[in-house]
Amino acid sequence: xxxxxxxxxxxxxxxxxxxxxxxxxxxxxxxxxxxxxxxxxxxxxxxxxxxxxxxxxxxxxxxxxxxxxxxxxxxxxxxxxxxxxxxxxxxxxx
Amino acid sequence: xxxxxxxxxxxxxxxxxxxxxxxxxxxxxxxxxxxxxxxxxxxxxxxxxxxxxxxxxxxxxxxxxxxxxxxxxxxxxxxxxxxxxxxxxxxxxxxxxxxxxxxxxxxxxxxxxxxxxxxxxxxxxxxxxxxxxxxxxxxxxxxxxxxxxxxxxxxxxxxxxxxxxxxxxxxxxxxxxxxxxxxxxxxxxxxxxxxxxxxxxxxxxxxxxxxxxxxxxxxxxxxxxxxxxxxxxxxxxxxxxxxxxxxxxxxxxxxxxxxxxxxxxxxxxxxxxxxxxxxxxxxxxxx
Lengths: 94, 287
Prior knowledge:
The complex is a heterodimer. Chain A is built from three helices and six strands, in the order ββββαβααβ. Chain A is of the alpha+beta class. The longest helix of chain A has 18 residues, at 71-88. By secondary structure, chain B is of the alpha+beta class. Chain B has helices at 22-30, 81-96, 125-133, 166-172, 199-203, 230-240, 244-247, 249-261, 272-284, and strands at residues 3-9, 12-18, 44-50, 61-66, 76-77, 100-110, 113-118, 138-141, 144-148, 154-155, 161-164, 184-187, 190-195, 210-219, 224-227, 264-269. In chain B, helix 1 packs across helix 2 and helix 6 crosses helix 8 (249-261). In chain B, strands 6, 7, 8, 9, 10, 14, 15 and 16 form an eight-stranded mixed beta sheet that branches. A five-stranded mixed beta sheet of chain B has the order 1-2-3-4-5, with helices on one face. Chain B has two domains: 3-96, no CATH class; 100-284, Rossmann fold, CATH 3.40.50.
């Protein structure tokens, strides 16, 4: 049996976002670092505003609005993004 | 220190102390028309000290220091004392200024609107600003542009313009010789000559302007103008700012507002005349 890892945002007011054309700037208040991100990072962060979610749940929610292709591959891709976002301090394991 | 001088440039005040009289004599002459600083509390102190005890007298050699300094800064010859003082002031601003977002950029103003130009050393931003400053624009600064964190306005910092190598002849042909400082040969950046901004730039150095265009000039390339995307502009301006990280969220807010509001272009050019013509045309079309 595999255990899904849940992720949450790094605090409700941790990020200040600013869209610059195709790019999203994120100012991370706890660290003072600025991150430049592109899709699908803003969409993943957007889903996590509702509360902690696992990668599979994020994919299911995003699939209601976007064509994501094969679910297994999409979950793998979102997990990889979540790992990177965790390393940057943008999200935390719940 | 044995000799000292107070200077006010835009919003910043400096006390410059020197072990020698010569650099301050040059500064006094070139900054004669600037408003007098009252000699009270200053934002920064610059100190020109002998690099070693005997270096005050024997082959005099200057070590630049002050409130902020670089431990490994190379000593400079006393003949370059004026340059050392100017570098010392730049160093204080670059390392210590926190009241505004500081961009390594030149800026000029017309009708209350500012044109900002940023780029690496040698890009032509300083020469271009100096030339525009002789041709109907108000020079706001050739080195640092100060962005108000709340209003987004640009503050002037019209210190002496540092002309290098080929730019010296270009401006010597446009500006009266009385506004040019001594020619400093053999510096780390070649020949350098300082230009006193026109009187209006000095008199109006407390007058802000709304940034209305950003250019990334690049001297020595076939004439071309390209729009620059906001993401690239943001990235390049964070690199051009010495205090973006230190300012934290207010710096983020000020810079994002600037990037969203100000149209940006890359400007390649082969001569000052060509660049000025391109700038004037872009400026006329900006809205």
